[in-house]
Amino acid sequence: MYDWIGRITSSDKTLKRWARVCGWSPEFVMLWAFKAAALLLFVVARQGVGNRVQRNMRDLLKLTDAELRRKIFRFYENVVIALYEILVDSYRLDVTGKRRLQAEGEEHLVQALRLGRGAIVYTPHTGNFFYYYWYLCRNYSCLTVATGGARSSGPCI
Asked: How far apart are CA 133 and CA 142, in angstroms?
């Protein structure tokens, strides 16, 4: 999934175009569009990634078939919303950031950066960490991000 998101978000010019095109629409309209896109993904992605998602959820969550379908749909819905936040809202953080983000402890990062040696920010894989990563990249000079789940990171030791 990270490789796929990386390909979609690799062009700054394309991201700005998406932000312009989608940014004019009210949030509630976009949420309905996300539900439609998630439904499309739910139907289309039954092979490949969809099989892996279903197998993983079935193994881990021990749900009925109806519960499993609802959880898988919510998974795709969250993927679509995360992409929207990266594609559109990341370019409007100056407007939406105060309302959407409540980063705690940022003053510690600012204090560490004042020392002139850089800083390492570590965050758990919970909540919408993509949005916070984008927030940090837009407001600070970031070198890299690593995740234990991405093949590009190599094995975690």
From this structure: 9
